[in-house]
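#lab-general

N.A. 3:47 PM
ok so I finally got the sequence cleaned up, no stray characters, all 298 residues accounted for. can someone with queue access submit it? mine expired

B.Y. 3:52 PM
send it over

N.A. 3:53 PM
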Amino acid sequence: MLDARRLRLLHDLSRLGTIAAVAQAHAYTPSAVSQQLAALEREAGLPLLERTGRRVTLTAAGRVLVGHAEVVLAALERTSAALAEMAGGVTGPLRIGAFPSAVRTLLPPALVALGREHPGLELMVTELDPVAVPAALREHRLDVGLLHDYDVVPIAPDPVLDGVPLLEETVFLAVPEGTPDGGGDPLRAVRDAPWVLASPGTLCHTATAHLCRAAGFRPRARHHADDFSTVLALVAADQGVSLVPRLAAVDPPAGVRLVPLPTRRRTRIAYRRGAAGHPAVAACSAALRAAAEGLFES
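B.Y. 4:20 PM
back already:
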């Protein structure tokens, strides 16, 4: 019989690449991870890992087992969800991860509704960049997370995660009030302006670089900021221009003009595959969708 916890370690090894990274993700020692993987090999009756010095790669049998592990882990999530539904009531801890602009706008009404309708829930919110949410879900540090991407830089689906669309927003070019309207392509009009860019490696930075490249230039960074309130304050202070999604521009400061672009940012609710039927996850999804539906109503 194969141990599900060891299957999860093998699956994470295929994703993370090293035993040290798996150990860090699970708060184990590398030695403990190696011992668990060796035990899984004995259970499987086939070598699952090839060791060359300090490097470890999966054998053909290991790759097959990883593929089946995704099915097993999803089945375990569905089982937990079914048991929670049979227990009745929506109770217990619910760990939610969301990016800053969603924490300020979408989360408050959703949390109020969840607290009112399901007082037995223990709500815990963590502010995270979307790039960190998938790992937090896979490692059971979150139960529900908000992910986003841009239509110009779509993100490939994660085979271990599932979810539903939540929100699609206009992306604006934020410029200081008084900036001449160049007409035509708004991005080309500010090609020589300084920019307030997000940190390299974030989705916002990647989307900005892609759009500027498509417009024929590379943005010249004057400042780097990941909080959109800071970004808009710097734009208002005539420190540069930036791209800002609608969720972060609900109440822009004086001195900022927002120019709509055809680009869209898309947000989705994510959870581990198989967990959609868990009462707490379903309740959270419903509350977030209700909050999103009323967000831009005037």
